[in-house]
Amino acid sequence: MIGPNKNVKAARYGMTIDVDRCSGCGACMVACAVENNVPPAHANATDRTGLTWIRVYKIDNGLPYPETRSAYVPVMCQHCGNETPCAHVCPQQAVDVDPATGVVGEMPQRCLGCRYCIAACPYHARYFNWWDPAWPAGMEKALNPDVTPRMRGVVEKCNFCHGRWHAAKQQAAADGKPDTEPVSYTPACAEACPTKAIHFGDLNDPASLPAQAAKQGESFRMLEKLNTDTKIYYRSKRDWVRRIADAPHPAGTGKENQRG
Amino acid sequence: MDREFIARGVKRCSTGKFLLWILPWAALLAFGLYSAGLCLIKGLNQTNMDNRFAFGLWIFLDLTVIALGAGAFFTGFLLYILKIKDLRAVINSAVVIGLVCYSGAVCVLGVDVGQPLRAWFTFWYPNVHSMLTEVTFCITCYLTVLTIEYLPIVLKNRKLRQIPSFLVFEFELHKLIYVLAGVGTFLSFFHQGSLGGLYGVLRGRPFAFREGFAVWPSTFFLFIISAAAVGPSFVLLTTWLVEKISRKKLVKPEVFSLLGRISGLLLSVYVLAKTVDTLIWINRTSPESGFPAAQYYSWQPFGTWILFAEIVLFGLVPALMLLAPQLRARTGWLVTAAMMACCGVALNRFVMTVQTLALPTLSFDRFLSYFPSWQETGTFLAVVAFGVLVYSISFRYFQLFPSERELRRF
Fold first, then answer.
1. Residue A29, φ and ψ in degrees, nearest 5
2. Cβ contact (<8 Å) for A226 and B289?
3. Which among A29, B93, B336, B397 has the fewest CB atoms less than 10 Å away?
4. What are phi and psi for residue A200, nearest 5 degrees?
5. Of all helices (H) and strands (E), which one includes residue A18?
6. Prior bond to A145 cis, omega within 30?
7. Torsion angle of alpha carbons B262, B266, B267, B269, nearest 10°?
């Protein structure tokens, strides 16, 4: 990653996702895959071996009909800020946290494919390339030239559309601006969301929408007690949805697990 | 045909019989190499691991064989540093066991990573905060030490001794043995510990995460003690097995008893430390992460029975058996206790690797199951076959048990 500009105050790029607005359409997943050259699933891929940097889970309140309520939760890399679990364990520094933005980056070119980072991530936001990437004939012409496709045997994950960040940084330099402050780009998922459930911005900038939304009482972060200081804030007015922030409860304990 | 290579004063089976013994193991090795080759050429899609079960049978195997192979460093430490001379009877065998276990584990690790050709990156761009970096450095160095320790055993071969330069080299290597034992012990303490640390540092996996001392979680120390405890047990078990298969007396009964006592003592320390650690984890570490420990054992089939089996059935029980002189005096009890101790450590490694990944972390997660593919199992079996072959060849041509000749007279 490009080193931090010392003249610019460190930012904390993050997102707020309004679970109540998410319709589960999956446009964010498609937009992300197209933007980041995520290849189509291999014929033998399963939901546990496929690649997707953002995954929309369907959850429900576990109650029988007619009390059943459901919601959709997009989960991507939560960009942990405190002792980032994946960066901490990678044996060859293929994962880093950009001090200028707080974005947790992955360097597939340096990745050994040991998958220790996958084991370390409690949010299951990291994906391994089990197969060689392949696109149907002709489709490779639609690849994004700003993003390098990854090879078999390495790990990849959301990087808040690094290609777009880089382009914004170059544009800022061309326009004579010192840096990309305030955030002047939008990741593909936030851009594609038809219900505007996803907002991206600098959580350190009090004027930004995500920073304001993150402070509201309806906001929560996944597994906050792990103290990973994630930068993805979820929002919901519904109590049962907010409880997804807690640890799982197995069936039969009286607190039925919300089904994903 | 190969009589000239077999040491004087010891008796070995005919070449034909030996070939017949190694043939099925060689076939198993060939099958395993084919399985591993498929994983290397076609990729890890040949396995049943996935984005959620990122580690599987191979990591369990690595952690277990490295613990079992700890007999090499710990016997060396007791013999050369603490001067427990009786262990000279099994030191050569312990070195071969160590070499087999470590080289097998390193080979499997080479298959287990997605980009094996980038293995050198860990040395070039090391992340000093990663336990895996520590493991990689220590295991590589220790495997080199084991290879050097194995060399004098090879060079002592009756035929090879006829080459004067080999004899001189072997003599010079022997002078280094105390240094090698010291270095080996230091490296082993670290990598056994870092293997425990691998999971103990995972804050995102509260089932495995443990508090500790300085940068090391408690599992770091528990793995060292458990490996040191089970190493002598495995040496005991192997020696007993070789005696049975070869129908020869290889070591005096006192050596068996000594190995059992050492194992029992360390196993007791381990069981005590593990119990304290578990209580701290249940009452403090896990709840502070937002995960009440009781919930882990509500996901079947991993109920509280697994905790009981690990600490009591395969921990406390064999420890007490090994500490009781009356039971130690009976081979059947001694071997059963050693076997139970080995199973206990294997179960502990299983819990740390497989159970950790099976348990959900997000509230909308599911409990996951995993079953290895035939390619994974084949690669696993290749390590077993490789171990049996190297040990069999070493036993036939090298002097693994110095007392064998002496005991033959009785």
1. -65, -40
2. yes
3. B336
4. -120, 145
5. strand A13-18
6. no
7. 150
Per cent of chain A over pLDDT 90 is 75
pLDDT at A258 over 50: no
Interface of A with B in 46-75 (CB under 8 A): 46, 48-50, 57, 59, 73, 75
Mean pLDDT of the region B336-358:
96
> Residue A119 pLDDT more than 90?
yes
Residue type, B18: F
**Chain A contact probe: residue of B362, B366, B367, B371 with most A CBs at under 10 A:** B362
pLDDT value of residue B410: 56
- Exposed (0-12), middle (13-18) or buried (19+): which is A2, by Cβ within 10 Å? exposed
For residue B201, the SS3 value is coil
| Cα separation, A173 vs A178, whole angstroms | 7
Place of tokens 């089996």: B309
Cα A53 to chain center, whole Å?
Answer: 7
3-state secondary structure of A151: coil
If one counts every other C-beta atom within 10 angstroms of the C-beta of residue B165, the result is: 8
pLDDT in the model for residue A257:
42
Cis peptide before A66 (omega within 30 of 0): yes
For residue A76, the cross-strand partners are A54
Is the separation of the CB atoms in B210 and B218 below 8 Å? yes
Mean pLDDT over each residue of chain B, to the nearest integer: 92
B126 in Cβ contact with B91 (< 8 Å): no
For residue B97, which of B216, B218, B234 has the smallest C-alpha distance? B234
Q: Rounded CA gap, B357 and A15, in Å?
A: 28
What's the first-to-final CA gap in chain A, in angstroms? 35
Q: Chain B contacts of A106, Cβ < 8 Å? A: none
Interface with chain B: mutation pick from A56, A92, A158, highest number of B CBs within 10 Å: A92
Measured distance CA(A101)–CA(B270) in Å, rounded: 45
CATH topology of domain A35-245: Alpha-Beta Plaits (3.30.70)
Contacts of B295 in chain A (CB under 8 A): 247-250, 253
A168-214 pLDDT, tens digit per residue, is 888 888 888 876 566 789 999 999 999 999 999 999 999 999 999 98
The residue of chain B with its CA nearest to that of A113 is: B114
CB A80 within 8 A of CB A229: yes
- What are the residue boundaries of the structural domains of chain B, listed by start? 3-399
Burial of B266 (0-12, 13-18, 19+ CB in 10 A): buried
Residue B60 gets the label, from left (phi > 0), alpha (psi -120 to 50) or beta, of: alpha
* Spatial distance between the Cα atoms of A17 and A198, rounded to a whole number of angstroms: 5
Rg value, chain B, Cα:
22
The interface predicted TM-score (ipTM) is 0.92
Q: What is the mean pLDDT of residues B187-202?
A: 90
> Mean pLDDT over residues A84-89, rounded?
95
Confidence of residue A253 (pLDDT cuts 50, 70, 90): very low
Q: Give B165's pLDDT tier (boundaries 50, 70, 90).
A: confident
pLDDT at A18: 96
Write out the two tokens for B34. 């084919």
Place of tokens 């546990």: A48
Query: What residue ranges do the domains of chain A occupy?
Result: 35-245
What three-state secondary structure class fits B270? helix
Stretch B121-134: mean pLDDT: 93
